[in-house]
Amino acid sequence: MSSIIISENDFLKFKEYFYRKTGMLFEDSKRYFVDKRLIERIEATESDNFRSYFNTLRFEASGDELQQLVNAMTVNETYFFREEYQFKCLVNSMLDEITHKKKDNSPIRIWSVPSASGEEPYSIAIYLLEHWSGIDKWDVEIMSSDIDTKIVAQAKRGHYSPRSVMNLSKPILDKYFIPQGGGYQICEDLRQAVEFSRVNIMEPADVRTFRNIDVIFCRNLLIYFDDTSRRQAAEMFFDSMKAGGFICLGHSESMSRISSLFRVRKFPEAIVYQKPLEAL
Amino acid sequence: MAFIKKQTSQVINEDERKTPRDFNGLCVELNHEDSKVRRWAVRDLAEQLNASSVLVTRLEHEDDASVRTAILNALAKLGDTIAMNGLVACLRSEEAALRNEAIEILKELPYEVEPIIDGLLTDADSDVRIFAVNILESLRHQHVEQWLIGVIEKDPHVNVCSTALDLLSEVGSELAIPAIEKLKARFPDEPYVCFSADLALKRIEEGSR
Fold first, then answer.
1. Do B76 and A135 touch (CB under 8 A)?
2. What domain range is B101 assigned to?
3. Which residues of chain B are within 8 Å of residue A107 when distances are taken between CB atoms?
4. Which residues in chain A are closer than 8 Å to B2, comparing Cβ atoms?
5. Which residue of A has its CA nearest to B16?
6. pLDDT for the residue numbered A175
7. Tens digit of pLDDT for each residue in A52-96?
8. Contact (CB<8Å) B4/A139
9. pLDDT, position A195
10. Domains (range + CATH), chain A
11. Could you tell me if B82 and B120 lie in one domain?
12. B7 inside domain
């Protein structure tokens, strides 16, 4: 049992600071969760108390401890149809606007980054097949990238635990997956539908070929970047997108806090960000 | 299915970078009428060590926000004296968006800001001094508290002191207590200063228990 105590005042101080830095706001109901992780980090850094830890957090030039804390405070978990409202927004709002403005028959390009183990790009593919009538008329190119070659290989394999597919209905599971080895193997057609690649989004040479993208899904990645890297990533996304293209971030992330390059678009299903059609 | 695979050898037809990327060529493109071309010139100039001067010059009359953002980020990346002076000059701009963007960038440059912060905190313009305190808000530097204490001890402008006091209530330690007490005495007729000072003292005392 730790002797470290996080007072009400400490919690408020931390809450304000963490919100300012990350956009993540913890309500009082999350107090136990926050206290537990703060105490873990205070002990891990061998700080005497909250105050000395908070000083490290605020003033450490490298920002390493802030990153450690962000990692501790975020739940790094992915599964099919996670944050489904954005997929609904894709098929009900974004794609209609994109196809309406298209002047040629070029494919619609969707980039999902980071791919993690593939749940997101495959979810996009399934969602388009199941819920977007335009799939009969338009070619769609789904690209997905991750910095980690092992996870890219895993995504290409497309084998998932029951937990990963917990949000999928039985008809969807039956249609696109084959039960295998206690888990589920995604069907070959879907495996072939997504182009996976290893990409470091901070490396200009890696992203140079990603151009004219219509929709980017970049959810729960920028939260792990420092402010400078977030802005650089926003610039990279801006350059990789078509004018009028959309970018979807995670529910606790806000492009408005990162960069003024994009416009906020409020659709009935979700708030997303758009590269303006005209020069800014 | 209408899914197609990306061709990795695909020709990028619409890449705006059509000319050689040498320094002189990029400087010419920096004044191109198309904002996309200017933006790419900035992005590529950010990789060249001697580019700060031309970027600062362009920033002075750049009216496209996407190009301006690219210039500010390029100056942050270059981080030399000319680049820092260019970012600091934005603090004097009449345009709030440009000022705010520069402040956000300066907040992330603790090593580069250290040699110039004293000058900013004692600038003749009280608005610039407030912006300097705004930079300290998220600056990851061990001297932040000392700089803030210096402000509330010496700055004659109540708004500058109030801004610093607000921040001290978050980052202040026992070291700040005497300066906060003196500030209250210096502005006894300013209710906001007295309120903020009491709040800061309360928070510091609670934090030290």
1. no
2. 15-106
3. 4
4. 135-140
5. A239
6. 97
7. 999 889 888 888 898 888 878 876 678 999 999 999 999 999 999
8. yes
9. 96
10. 8-73 (1.10.155), 84-159+193-274 (3.40.50.150)
11. no
12. no
**Among B66, B101, B170, whose Cβ lies nearest the Cβ of A238?**
B66
List residues of B whose CB lies inside 8 A of any A CB: 1-6, 8, 10, 12, 14-15, 35-36, 39-40, 43, 64-66, 69-70, 73, 76, 97, 101, 104-105, 107-108, 110-111, 138, 140-142, 144, 170-171, 173, 203, 206-209
B189 with B135, same domain: the answer is yes
Contact B2 A189 (CB under 8 A): no
- Nearest Cβ partner for B76 among A136, A212, A228: A228
Q: Locate the chain A residue with the closest alpha carbon to B168.
A: A13
Closest to A218 in 3D by CA, of A152, A106, A121: A121
B117 against A9, higher pLDDT: B117
Interface size A-B, in CB pairs within 8 Å, comes to 107
Q: Is residue B90 part of a domain?
A: yes
pLDDT band, residue B11 (cuts 50/70/90):
very low
In the prediction, which pLDDT does B8 show? 46
Of B1, B108, B144, the CB nearest to A189: B1
Contact: A16, B170; criterion CB under 8 Å: yes
- pLDDT tens digit string along B85-111? 999 999 999 999 899 999 999 998 999
If we measure between CA atoms, which residue out of B109, B108, B110, B128 comes closest to residue B120?
B128
Is A20:A44 a contact under the CB 8 Å cutoff? Answer: no
Q: What is the CATH number of the domain that holds B169?
A: 1.25.10
User: Cα angle at B45 between B134 and A223, to 5 degrees?
Assistant: 45
Burial annotation A106-116 (CB, 10 A radius, 16+ → b, else e): ebbbbbbbbbb
Residue where a domain terminates, one of B90, B106, B122: B106
